[in-house]
Amino acid sequence: MLVFSALSERQSNQTSPGRPTMCRSCGAIIGAGESQCAVCGAPTAGQPAGTAAKPRAADRETIRFARAVLNRPNKFTIFLLIANVFVFLLMWDSSHLTSEVLLQGFPEPVLIVYGAKLNYLINAPNYQWWRFIAPMFIHINLIHLFVNMYSLMMVGPFVEKLYGSARFVVFWVVTGIAGLLASYLTLRPQLATGALGKFIFKDLDVPSAGASGALFGLVGVLFVFGIKFRRELPEGFKRAFGTGLLPIILINLFIGFVGRGFIDNAAHLGGLLSGAALALAVDYKRPGARSSITNVWRVFQVLALSVVALGFYKVARNFSSPLPPVVHSQNPQSVIFQNYFRAMNELQEKVSAVIHNNDRGDVALIAQKAVQAPTPDARAADLRNRLVVILSKLNEAAAAVSPGPNQEAAQPPPLDTKLVDEYTEWRKEYDVWLKEAAKTYTAEQ
């Protein structure tokens, strides 16, 4: 995001002895010895009489534009930064303030309980839709938080000052959700092959979190803004917006390509494209904008903040659900429990896919992986074996109602409700065991 410092570097450039001054027209900092403001073009008050190069006249609309950007507040950028840091501190507290997690990352149970995106928890029968919202405010480790918050402070103020706080909040929430939705839709193991396939698609349902999708959305907004309004941008802004952002976008996409095994590139692309689409459709908040337009965006802002508040409420309620708490030590039993928990999650996701989507792909492979996973106790083994049997029954029932090769592909009839009820009862027993087992196997040693 270093491109966003170009404007401030230009404003404070010192080319001759003297002291920097402030532009009387727009309020920008003028480097010592500069004959005119780099932002609005207004001449400096103390320009020497013998200056050869005559400064260009300051355009009134340019001055109004510069004032609008430099003088508007960016309070919601600060609010988002504080909210992200606050949630990070809560997650650290849930990890018993251990220093290891700051660099190594929070344990998976902590990420899950705070709302990380996991497809199997969003899908039926869990329907935890709020996992499209909460991940915008949670981060994996301290480096992840620092990089994203630094980027927010570089990008956020420009977008908020240009478009106003109401539009900025809507942009953040909409592009953040769009990025997570893209991540959700690109969990396609069959397409995650080859360099390009692995760049976009994922083959494993692992926790996804971070504000990167929304940040890429803001970059998309500034990119389209710089192109859309290039004729009315002052010179100082043209280098930071529009095509000036292309190197930063390409560098980040290259980093995502190199780290395609662990970076959620689909979320980044979803945020970038949705931000660009919003900038195409939305005008920026010019000085003296009509109040009726502002009021409409205030309504959208309230709705966006309400969605975020509802997401936080659902996360708070999720703390009482039977998900395993923090792993305080990596003792052998804790490792066995965690591996078993992951295998059971994958097994339940496949059961849900068979019930609701008649998706029978890789049933045998997933069942085999679950059977091969070590179990922490006899009750866990019994629950695992019962679920494998239920999955086998559901697979056979789904095959029986599936259309033949010569029949039209249509929505198959629902499966036998007795099998679905059997799985529902199994879930209740599993949740009871999981709640107690988590206390036993993740206790600090």
- Going by CATH, what is the homologous superfamily of the largest domain? Rhomboid-like
Which sheet architecture does the biggest sheet show? Answer: 2 strands, antiparallel
- Highest CATH level, the class of the largest domain: Mainly Alpha
β content, as a range?
A: under 5%
Runs with pLDDT <50, length 5+?
1-17, 48-58, 323-330
Question: Helical element count?
Answer: 18
Structural class: mainly alpha
Mean pLDDT, nearest integer? Answer: 79
| Largest sheet strand order | 1-2
CATH topology of the largest domain: Rhomboid-like fold
Give the SSE map.
Elements: H1 6-11, E1 21-22, E2 29-30, H2 60-71, H3 75-94, H4 100-104, H5 108-113, H6 119-122, H7 142-163, H8 165-185, H9 194-200, H10 212-228, H11 235-238, H12 246-258, H13 265-281, H14 291-318, H15 332-357, H16 363-372, H17 378-401, H18 417-441
Antiparallel strand pairs: 1-2
Helix pairs in contact: 3-7, 7-8, 7-10, 8-10, 8-13, 8-14, 10-13, 15-16, 15-17, 15-18, 16-17, 17-18
Q: What features would you describe in this structure?
A:
This protein is mainly α and 445 residues long. It folds into 3 domains: 2-60, no CATH class; 75-318, Rhomboid-like fold (Up-down Bundle); 332-400 and 414-441. It is 60% helix and 1% strand. It contains 18 helices and 2 strands. It has helices spanning 6-11, 60-71, 75-94, 100-104, 108-113, 119-122, 142-163, 165-185, 194-200, 212-228, 235-238, 246-258, 265-281, 291-318, 332-357, 363-372, 378-401, 417-441, and strands spanning 21-22, 29-30. The chain has a two-stranded antiparallel sheet with strand order 1-2. A hairpin with a 6-residue loop joins β1 (21-22) and β2 (29-30). α10 runs parallel beside α13. The longest helix is centred in the last third of the chain and has 28 residues, at 291-318. The protein starts with 5 loop residues before the first helix and ends with a helix. Residues 1-17, 48-58 and 323-330 have low confidence and may be disordered.
